[in-house]
Amino acid sequence: MKTTKSTISRRHFLQSSSAAITAAGLFGSSPLFAQGNDEVKLQFMYPVGVSGDINRIVTEMITEFNTTHEKIQVEAIYAGSYDNTEQKVMTSLGVGDPPATWLPINSALQTFLSMDALADVTALAKADDIYQDFLPGFLSICESEEKLYGLPFQCSTPVLYYNKEIFAKAGINKAPDTWAELMETAKALTVRDGSDVTQWGLTFGGGWHDWIFESFVRQNGLVPWQQDKVMFDAPESIDALEFWVQMVKAGVMPAASTWQGSANDFMAGRTAMLYHSTGSLTNLRTSSPFDVGVAFMPKNKTYGATIGGGPILMAKDQPDAHLEASWTFARWMTNTQNQTHWCKSTGYIAARKSSWEGEELKSFINEVPAAKVALDQAAYAGAFLQVPGYHKVREYLKSAIDGTLAGDTDPTGALKEATVKSNKEIERVMRRRS
Amino acid sequence: MNQSLLKRYGLHGILIPIALLWISPLLWILVTSVKTRVEVFDASSGLLPQNFIWDNYPAAMAVAPFGTYMINSVLVTGSILACQIVTISLAAFAFARLTFPCKNLIFSLFLLQIMFPIYAIFLTNFITVRELGLLNSLPAMVVPFIASGYGTFMLRQAFRQVPTELADAARLDGCGHFATLWHVYLPLVKPTLVAFAIISVVTHWNDYMWPLLVTNSESVRTLPIGLGLLAKSDSGADWTRLMAATVIVVSPLLLLFVVFQRRFVDSFMHAGLK
Fold first, then answer.
1. What is the ipTM of this complex?
2. Looking at the partner chain, which of A55, A280, A289 has a beta carbon nearest the beta carbon of B64?
3. Domains of chain A
């Protein structure tokens, strides 16, 4: 990092670098930087979804990359949340000056594909060990029609967190493994004071409950979407929502919650079990005044999980030399050692088999057995709602779930309506882009 | 006797609880910023921290270069305000007291600016800033805001309240437009200017999306972006450090308010804003 330079010279430096990428900028011919012409300059835009420290970790990784790669300079650009990052990338795409690489949530894959923004890296990956070494479920989040568009970098899934203290007090010694057991355990752990619930049996992290819901549908043996439509009205989906309604009606689970609020409730002991992201593991473990247990999400027909987080994607609209450099960068960020390091320091699940076979993660699992749960469950995990216009589709699904749990409507009707609306939206987005 | 006592303290009886209600979030921020992470959610440990932990402050500071961010925030917010005061005084004076063709049409167009949500013009602004070659620099965060439809409107209304006789007298004394504006109008609308300044400073001090969009390097970013790093969306907020950083971000504004409190309150009474 050239932090010792003054703001002004740094600004010029950056402007000339972005000009070099578009090869049409105002400062491209600046004599100051003429000697650096054979150096490829890339931008990498990333969100911070889990912790402030991630920003530091990413910056450190990129500094290391830059010092070990003479011909490539990557500029790390923190871009807010996943949504903010997408907006920032979209804006740059809109003016024809996209960053070389970026890290969106995996649901956005079809959105970027329909804008023809992504470089196909299948051939590069085949010449490498990508298809052999990455966990297939994780690799699938960057695939569409058997072509690969990126490398999985920060992957998470929902898992079941439970309060070991409350479990011990109630004499329960193992986490539920099936939906029926989940219901039973939740009933046993719900504490009422008159008509008020003082301790819920179970809470889903709201705001991302559509993500958790897709896991339930997957546990019924169905992936409720294809690349151009959703099937929220399939019997498997309706059955999953009916199960949720049963739990709300039984009074063991709140009908609504928020993402942060549910985590807070868990840490304060107001809910015995919590469905939340693996990304929350470190925070929950270090902030809770009790022992935190981590388990598979209980199965119905099968285990199932949805992958959150995202891959590093590469822009199509860049010269070959830059694309090659982008690949080198993405490949480096996801190499065995870096995935090991990333997994240990953030709680995201390493995407490479070789990382898990290494000594470092083996001893990490001994210290934090919860990490193993996340890895094992990853075998049942797949991508999350990769359809065009996924923002609106998520909203439709969420309001269907919310309305049903609040008792305003029945599961079948709500999900049918959400399906019709979603498919119409997907069609609209595809028509506009084609 | 009793009645006057009620009169004297009755209002306080109502106002003090309301004041406490208003100040409670600020107190909560302060208290949380010196707690440990476990304490925040442990109901049994009570509201007050068991022992004051100052570690959250350096820990929050380590997340991002907050010092640089603070300087940038001050520079950006200050430059916006300085530019705005100049442009809105001139524009408002023209709309209030001069006659020129299409005056009302142009004024309506100005008002339209208030009605467009800022997000609707992000892309066009982005293109403009890019073509000016300003991306990833402090001016990129200033340029789109140097004119303000809202400020022009506010000030125009205030100028129209100023009796024309005063302006006429100034003209007799040999003042041109600029001198009249400077010596007569501006001193008389100070409360409105202060009211506008508060609104402008608070808006731009807290602005998050636009600075995020047009800047890439840490050396030109502002405080809200640093805060965003701690409001973790995936895993629940990192409350203790987030609150420590929040204290740092809001304290300059609070300090400013405390110092100029009387003037602020007066100006809002005058400008008829609540």
1. 0.77
2. A55
3. 17-27+35-155+308-376 (3.40.190.10), 158-306+388-433 (3.40.190.10)
